[in-house]
């Protein structure tokens, strides 16, 4: 399905349109269960997450590329692609650029030469700072002219990054593996009170159980089960120290079947029971 630049401008709600001109648009996107179907544009696109991780696929490769706040992707015009949030909530900024806009803001950047197919680039602290300024909840209170300047600066900074030509590795590289494992860890942390099957965690990232467990151990030194147990004990330890919840309630909230189950885990890892831990004076 083709999405023309004119269609994009007409369909974007004003609250999500950070900046727009005759030949360019800077749009805030994402949300709960963000996903797009296969489509292409008659203009270039730059996509960068502001929170969460996005799985990106395009017609030029079979593998998935994972986008985080540390990277953005440049998609030349007429390249079919789809994207989906790895977890339920993901937000991003997307820049749509026609050829006149590219000629205006980056005359030396030829996307057909620099990126014949979608390509990823690392962000910089300057780009991330501009992104935060453009996308904070306070942007509605800022003068529109100031937001226009920030969005334009973000556009130019990202195009300059593309011009440098320092692409990141493919989706199967170690760098992407670290992004996937970080999201796997976040998924586990968010659901510590549940015994989510390893097969379900792996499937959420398009991985086999064997590949997911091997990748996880490679980047953390722990199995998925070991990591989950460690996080449960650490979360329980903090709750015991910082709240007055009963030991049974703490155990339930951190995924242990009972207070005795929490006690066994804490004795094994910390050498102290929950009750004894609470009696330890902290300064």
Written overview of the protein:
- 46% of the residues lie in helices and 20% in strands.
- It is built from twelve helices and eleven strands.
- The protein has helices spanning 5-11, 99-105, 111-114, 125-135, 144-164, 174-190, 198-204, 209-220, 224-242, 247-253, 259-269, 274-279, and strands at 2-3, 17-20, 24-32, 40-41, 44-51, 54-58, 65-67, 71-75, 81-85, 89-97, 119-122.
- A hairpin with a 6-residue loop joins strand 6 and strand 7 (65-67).
- Helix 4 runs antiparallel to helix 5 (144-164) and helix 10 packs across helix 11 (259-269).
- The N and C termini lie far apart (62 Å).
List the strand order in the largest sheet.
Answer: 2-3-10-5-8-11
Q: Can you say what the CATH homologous superfamily of the largest domain is? A: Jelly Rolls
Can you tell me the CATH class of the largest domain? Mainly Beta
Q: In terms of per-residue confidence, which ranges show pLDDT below 50 for 5 or more consecutive residues?
A: 170-174
Count of domains:
2
Distance between the termini: 62 Å
Q: Return the CATH topology of the largest domain.
A: Jelly Rolls
Which quaternary structure do these chains form? single chain
Q: Could you give a short account of the major beta sheet?
A: 6 strands, antiparallel
> How much β-strand is present in the residues?
15-25%
**How many beta-strand elements?**
11
CATH architecture of the largest domain: Sandwich
